[in-house]
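Q: Hi! First time doing this. I have a protein sequence and I read that you can turn it into a structure. Is that right? Here it is:
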Amino acid sequence: MFQKIEPSKLEGTITNVVQWDLAQTETNEGATFDCSGTFSAVCNYSINQGARMVSELKDHKLELAKGSNVPQDVQGLVGMIHRSMPTELFDPTDHAIDTTYLDVDLRIVRMTGPNFEGVRDIFIRRGSMEINPIGTD
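A: Yes, that's right. Below is the predicted 3D structure, encoded as structure tokens:
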């Protein structure tokens, strides 16, 4: 999952993107991942108090990868993505995002609002560091 921010002075767009693969074909050898693509939650934001970003969902986009089959149950696929994606990034409507820490490679934010008050998200710049939870020992 990654987040793309497109600023325009004190307003802009935040796009939260996840890549997905779906196995809907079952064979004797097992399941075949024959559907894949990206899912995006596109949100507008405005900055109206210091570093506070007030966000509102603009659109959800489901895009197929080149050569992918079309999922038989698109609504079911979106439901699976919704359950696996942090809810505050799927639809942050009526919430504000406070940046609590920021440097070149790391950004920590705190959500404020009716449903996600106090939720924190950590974003790491792609390619800046490698995280390997398994280790190489």
